[in-house]
Every structure is written in C-alpha cells, then in structure tokens.
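To whoever is on call:

I kicked off a structure prediction for a single chain this morning and the downstream step that reads the tokens threw a length-mismatch warning. I double-checked the sequence; it's 477 residues and nothing unusual in it as far as I can see. Pasting both halves so you can look.
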Amino acid sequence: MTACASPSPTTGHGNEAGQGHDDSEEGALGDGARTRSASPPGCVITADGSYGARLALAGDDAWFPERWTLDGPEPYAVPLPANQPEEPGTEVLPLTDGRVLIHRPAAERHLFSLLYPTGPGTGELLLGAVECLDPSTELRLLPPGPCGEWAYALAVGPSSTAVWLVAGGAFGPERVAEVAGRCSGGVWLDGAGRLLALDRESDGRTKTVVVDLERGEVTPLLQIADDSDDRLLLADPDSGLLLISSDAPSPGRDRLGWGVLGSTLPVRFPECLRVPDGHRMTPFAIQPGQILTPESCAVALRVDGARDSWVGLWRPASRQVHHLPAPEGWLTGAGLWTRDGVLHLPYATGAVGCGVARVGVPWGDEPDTCEPAHETTAHEATAHGGTARVGAALGEPAHEDARGVVSVGAGASAGAYGAPDTPGAPGTPGPSDGAGVAGLPPGAERAPVGGLAVAARPVPLQQAPLIGRVSEEVTVG
C-alpha cells in the first residue's frame, strides 16, 4: 500500500439537503449465532459530542454529506454537497474544528478530503490517497479519536492490517502501524488517542490487542480462553468501563459482558444482557465523567430485532435493561451520553431534518432483588490445579454459564465488585427483562481505575483453568 498527497483546495456545489436515511440491518442475529455484525451507525459523532456527520439522501439515490452541530442550544444541519452525488459506500467523519473528513473508494485507490461550508457552496481540501494494490484489501475509517483533530483508517489485507493516519498529518496519509493478522473493531483506550484496541484474527481465533500508535508496538489485551473469540466493543477512558463480547461462557454463542480497565476482578456476563435468537444487542455509548465509579456508568445499547431496532439502557449496577422505543427517524446506532446521564439520540424525519431526542433514566427506581452467590476468584481456580501468568492463555475451555475475571491494563486497580449475577429468563423488550448485579460491597476501597493512564503499555488478561461449573463467570487471573 502506498500513499499520495494532494493538498490543493477546490470548491464544489451540489444538491439540496434531503431527508436522512436509516441504514439499520434487519434480521441481525444475536445470541446463538455469529454471522454478520450490526450495520454502521447512521451518524458518526465526535468524541466530545460537538459535531456529527452522515450521508443524507436527496431524491431517490443522490447522496451527499451533511454536518450536524450538536453543542449549541438547538442542533442544526449544514449540507456539504460536492460537484456530484456521492456513492453509497462513501464514509464521513466529523472533526472538532467543524470540518468533515470524507473517504471515497475508487478502484484500488482510497481518496480522502476535508469538507467545510464556504459561502453558498462546499469547500474541499484534498488530503491525498491510499493505494491498495491487493484488490482483497478492505479500508475503512476508524471511530473518531479522543482529540478530535486526527482521523485514522484501517486497511485490512490478507495477512496483515495497517493503521493509517489520514487526517491531521503533515504530508497527507501516513502509515503509523502494522499488525500481523486480519483486524476488525477499533476502540480508543486513552484520552490522548495513542492506544488503539483492535480485534485480531489469528489461527482461527479472535483476540483483542492494543496498538501503541506512537511507538508502533502491539501487545495482547483480551484473552479469556484458548479457544474463545474475545472482542472489545466499547471502552470509557474516564471510568475504565469495558464492554466485551466473548463466547467463553457459552462456547459457540457470543455473550455480552463487562469489565474494568486495570482491574483483576471478574468480567461479568449478566443474564439480562442475553437476547433471544434472531436478535442482537450492541453497546454504542457510555456515560463519561464517572471517575472511579464504572459500575454507575450508563450504557446505551442498540437492540436489533427481526423487523426493527430500539434502544436499551443499562448500567453495571443494574439488575435489568430498560427497553425503550427509538425516536422516529433515529439515525440507528448513533447517540451520546452527557456527564449528567442524559442520552442524546439524533434523528431526522420529513418534518424535522435535524433533531435530537433526550432520554433520562430513573435508576433509583430499580428493585434490589438479587441474592448474593459464591464468587470464584483467580486464587480459587488456581487452587484446583491451574496456574496463571501474564500474557499466557492456559487451561481448559470455559463452559456454559462460567464466570470471568479480567486483568486489563497495568498500574492502578479498579473498584471491587460484589454479588455475581442471578440468572433470569432471557428477555424480549420490556421494563424488567433478566437479572444481573454487580454492586460494591461495604468497605470496598476504590483505587484509581484506567491503568493505561499510568502505564507505558497494557497488561494482557491472565488465564487460569476452571474445574466444574461456576455461575456466570469465566475465571482468569
């Protein structure tokens, strides 16, 4: 792969703004099947929530970029059409300075430009191109970085994956890291935009690794069992909360769980986060600013059913998922939390071209009905004949309804967790589906979370074998 830089600016004019589109995927499969993932969100939002960007539709098939301003008293949209309509596969990503990065695939070349409003038209600054000589290479934009001024893309080849800095560099697109194996996902682990988590497929299994974009180093992060597929879906640098997908507790069936960055305490797979076959539950936003209290972070979940998508609201200290209908015209999978715990969901309809629905949750109204149960620790698992060490994946595969212990990051440890989850019936949309609890026990001390903030590199998960059946955890440590 090669890069070509083209810094000359141009200005274009295009179509009038049209109605937004919903690219949610019908029939997405959930627990019990692993086929395709949920479709990309209908709108991409900067990490600080100031801007959003999407492809809007004018007429039957005329697509154009649109920038949403979200940090003012009322949201508003600015159309950014070019000289001709965009292709449906075009990607857009907002920057915190108000410009919008656009990625246009063209045969073996991937073209990148910055769009911005200028008078009655659209200004365009050409950044350059990435040339992929192998036709099987897939290139896509990564989620917006924490700093909001740089943008990265992932080029997935047959045997390796390259990370490209495509906006913010001095001389056009620049390759900053190379990872052996095919990678997917993309989650930022720190506030500086230096540590990027990727899900790497190798030898038929998928494990999460961390790429240090400053040094180009790659280190393991998520390894629950030898024969499990473990992915990092979402992370919050403030609290250290991690949302994880793994088939370790139920081999062959992906489960949604949570852990804490820098903690050696269990990854939980709450029963209330299980969904029936034919459904999929995907986290898309975590409440920021909850320093040292990951269990109180609100999490927004996109729930895809056979015919529709809706919103689930949950937090680790909860015993249930609150299922809510999505606002009409929701840009499916897009949204952000305020520090005060209000969820903002962008939407567009024929009557409202740019709107934001605001949702609050009365967490204090939830019942406290879960009974404490025995919690297996890494020490107890090791006493059954196993060993545990950093960077190793030892022992036998996890079994159905196993429980998990996570060690992610180095340096600081996270708050302790109390009772394991009490099994409940898998749910369909309703106010109190399933059950799951992870509260702080009396007298538990809180140490700083998010060990990556004080460590040069993350420490991978540790593994110890399991003997027998333990409820809802996979013991690692």
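Update from on-call: the warning came from a stale cache, not from the record. Cleared it. Sanity check on the structure: Residues 6-29, 31-36, 368-477 have pLDDT under 50 and may be disordered.
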